[in-house]
Amino acid sequence: xxxxxxxxxxxxxxxxxxxxxxxxxxxxxxxxxxxxxxxxxxxxxxxxxxxxxxxxxxxxxxxxxxxxxxxxxxxxxxxxxxxxxxxxxxxxx
Length: 93
Known about the structure:
With 93 residues, the protein is α+β, with helices and mostly antiparallel strands. It contains 2 helices and 5 strands.
């Protein structure tokens, strides 16, 4: 199947919020085990954003949702920028 992105705003926002909830929850145990581990969630210009700052040695990771484009952008100091869409066929990113 050719990847096709979900284009419904409500479906995208629900899936994006669920993903960020899951990521934020998964950070809890790691946050308690690391001296430098800052997690921040906020609304940016395009949608919700989750950042994970591991300090100057490990860097900052960012997941940013774009309501306009119905995609999220994952940025890390290791892999750079990767774009994901929610598949209309599978319901997966």
